[in-house]
Amino acid sequence: MSKVSVIIPIYNGERYLKDCLDSVLSQTLRDIEVLCINDGSTDNSLTILDKYKEIDNRIKIINQDNMGVAVARNKAMAMANSEFICFMDADDLYPSNDTLEILYKHAIKQGAKICGGSMRQFDERGSWENFEGVYKKYSFNEFKWIDFKDYQFNYGYQRFIFNRKMLIDNEIFFPLYKRYQDPPFFTEAMLQAKRFYAIPVVTYCYRLGHQSNPLDWSIDKFTDMIRGWLENLEISSREGLAELHYLVLNQVEDNYTAEALVKNLEDDEVQSLLIKLNASIDIDLLREVAPTEYESENYILRVFHDNIAVVKSLQNQLIEYNALQDKLHDIEFRYNEMENSVSFRCGRMITYIPRLIRNGIRCYRDNGFAKSMNIIYTRIERIFK
Question: Is 4-207 CATH 3.90.550.10?
């Protein structure tokens, strides 16, 4: 059994893969296994892996079709033969050669199920270790035990090593989302351990600048992002974690996701998930963190919160309306007769919602997201007065 398994999913990662592997294989903690999951790469990633495996037999290559990082990590977790597990992305690095040794030494000394340090972000311009606002929790400034209920942060899981037996015995794996699969995993692992040991040392270097733009995501990636938000909101509400609940909504509010929300608002599945997401928002819990901030409609979905029953009713009407579309061509000759009928006016009301959304997108381009959503909400509310 190895001391630590380093799990690296790889999909078309040839550009930075050598740097990543050099960083891992140069660790002074020699008793490690490096599980590299080739997730259906079409570039030279597999060739690079094969060459490194010839040099260092600690590398194990797992090939699979392109199934995503969650499947890749879960498969490697099940195969790992070690005391601890950690996760590395194929374009990232360890900050020093003794990173894993330091983490492992303190985990063993303290009897910790989870042990971690600080984050460093970098790109071609330089590196950053100072974070502001809620993201200050990327860093630790002293050696100490921290209860997760005092920490309540769900980003940067790569900075930590996790006791493998704890994860496997409690079936803590990555949910099969194409986006935002790591915060729910990280949160569940922390809740299981209850506390972790923090060290005031940078333990992970995260490369910036290569992430895809959410506006370019497929609808599957976007809906999986919403599912990830939903899961973490439900977890934080269930556990009474007000700061985490607030943090997730801050993540939803990020500018890049707000624009993507507007772009995808017309999709039926997105609408359904947004209603579920909104229903999972615990306003009373949020007010423990920001007593006045959530008196106003100043975050995404808030405009629907007080009238969620109306939105659900409209969604049901939209479903019925779509089912009736196939029958309309058989009764076109009755159009003039129906034009002044109650049924026709109801139909216009039903179609009012998608028309509002389309108009809202145009309004968003001119007025911004928050103002546009308030306009849409006001018009929806006006229908029912």
Answer: yes
